[in-house]
Amino acid sequence: MRVGISGTHGTGKTTLVEALSANLSGHVAADEPYYLLEEEGYEFQFPPSLEDYRALLARSVRSLRSPPSPSGTIFDRTPLDYLAYLAAIGADPSEGVDGAPLRSAFASLDLLVITVITPETEQILPAMEMPGLRARMNDALVELVYDDPLNAWEDTPVLELSGPLDGRLDAVLAALKQTRR
């Protein structure tokens, strides 16, 4: 199984990726595109620029389109994250984006999981940098995932996690069980 986890910063994505990796036998967590690009020598601006988000989008597409490993893979971020960050900084997320590689990338996923800002994430998780960007990205992500303006993930099952943090792992495992049928 290949699972992509998307959401704005500070919504528990990485914690969920780690929990899934520990609970799904033979599954590995793929590194976040930011860290992959850093390892490849890419230097990011702070805050990230339009070019940075486009580079992250391209790297995320490459990660998802890479040949599947023998074990399952859980991706910490998907191209959807970077499309939403582009929208959050005022750019048109579909401008200059080729839908074919995106469709191929999302077609490789068995499940796309969306972690959103909830009252519980705001109370329990640590405060994040750039709260305005975080909120705008969250809103853009929710809009994009359901509108799918690039027709890229229309055939990929989507699970939006808006419930309690301690129920997320079970919700994803149940969705994966349904997907396998």
What key attributes describe this structure?
single chain, 181 residues, alpha/beta, 8 helices, 12% strand
Describe the protein in words:
The protein has helices at 13-23, 33-39, 50-65, 79-88, 99-107, 119-124, 131-147, 168-180; strands spanning 2-7, 28-30, 73-76, 111-115, 158-161. With 181 residues, it is of the alpha/beta class. A five-stranded parallel β-sheet has the order 2-3-1-4-5, sandwiched between helices. Helix 3 (50-65) runs antiparallel to helix 4 (79-88) and helix 3 (50-65) crosses helix 5.
First-residue to last-residue Cα separation? 12 Å
**Number of helical elements:** 8
Class inferred from helices and paired strands: alpha/beta
Could you tell me the mean pLDDT? Answer: 94
Strand content: 5-15%
Order of helices and strands: EHEHHEHHEHHEH
> What spatial order of strands do you see in the largest sheet?
2-3-1-4-5
Characterize the main sheet: 5 strands, parallel
Gyration radius over CA? 15 Å
| Beta strands, count | 5
Topology:
Layout: E1 2-7, H1 13-23, E2 28-30, H2 33-39, H3 50-65, E3 73-76, H4 79-88, H5 99-107, E4 111-115, H6 119-124, H7 131-147, E5 158-161, H8 168-180
Parallel strand pairs: 1-3, 1-4, 2-3, 4-5
Helix pairs in contact: 2-3, 3-4, 3-5, 4-7
